[in-house]
Amino acid sequence: MSEIAWGLASDKRAIVLAVVLITMTVLSAGPLHPVDEFINNAPRPYWDQIREPMILWPDTVASRFVALPVLGVTALQLAYWHRSWRPIILGAGGVVGMMSMVAMMKLVFARSHPRTGDPSFFAEGGVSFPSGHGANAILIYGLVLFLIIRYRAARPHIIRRLAYCIVGIALLQAFVSAFLHFHWFTDLLTGMVAGGFALSLVIRLDRMIPEGRTATWWPWYGGGFWSPDDDGAPAGAAGRG
């Protein structure tokens, strides 16, 4: 356990993102309040016409009700193909870890809702900071892309398009949440950084888990138990997926 903790703590990318996360938290607590207030008070054209459609469709793209099924189907399919618990472990561990971190930050910093007009931290009943939807857009959809790359489940040009889609989802979620007064602008930026930090830890964890530890899968699939190859796939099926 101590080796895993040390390995996660020594990941350079995670360290950089942790510093960025701390920096964004400090800036969101005061120095960036003018930016938050400017965006929050900016005119909302066609508010009455587009508010409800935006809530019903674009705002749900990065919600857990949409993103988790996408991750779940991807992880289960790859687990089935490669007869390994690894995709499920990485997916579940990443989501639980990210949700725990975001929930803890919401409770600790207790930021006021944008509709109050006050971006201060430590407000009674405040849970605005950071944005869970922003974290979902990066962590959950990022995990989907990582698993596809990890198991070579798509061609490179498809992977590039999926990466562009994730960027588009993150930008769309940020615009919609800010437009609808659901989050302060810095809530969304910090949520995305938190999602990226959690994703970096999951990728690092994948490198630390020995392949054979996660390779026992459904005994009735393929006519009995089997010996996995180095990639966690069944022997003789290394090219699949």
Q: Radius of gyration, rounded?
A: 20 Å
SSE run = HHHHHHHHH
Q: Could you describe the largest sheet, including whether it forms a barrel?
A: none
SS elements, strand count: 0
Cα end-to-end separation: 32 Å
Mean pLDDT: 88
What is the molecular shape?
Answer: globular
Low-confidence stretches: 220-241
- Helical content, roughly? 55-70%
Strand content: under 5%
Count of helix runs: 9
Label the structural class: mainly alpha
List the helices and strands and how they pair.
Blueprint: H1 2-9, H2 12-28, H3 33-41, H4 47-56, H5 64-82, H6 86-109, H7 132-150, H8 156-179, H9 185-208
Helix pairs in contact: 2-9, 5-6, 5-7, 6-7, 6-9, 7-8, 7-9, 8-9
What structural keywords apply?
about 65% helix; disordered C terminus; mainly alpha; about 240 residues; globular
Explain how this protein is built.
It is a single chain. With 241 residues, the protein is mainly α. Helix content is 64%, strand content 0%. The protein is built from 9 helices and no strands. Helix 5 packs antiparallel against helix 6 and helix 7 packs antiparallel against helix 8. The two termini are 32 Å apart. The model is unreliable at 220-241 (pLDDT under 50).
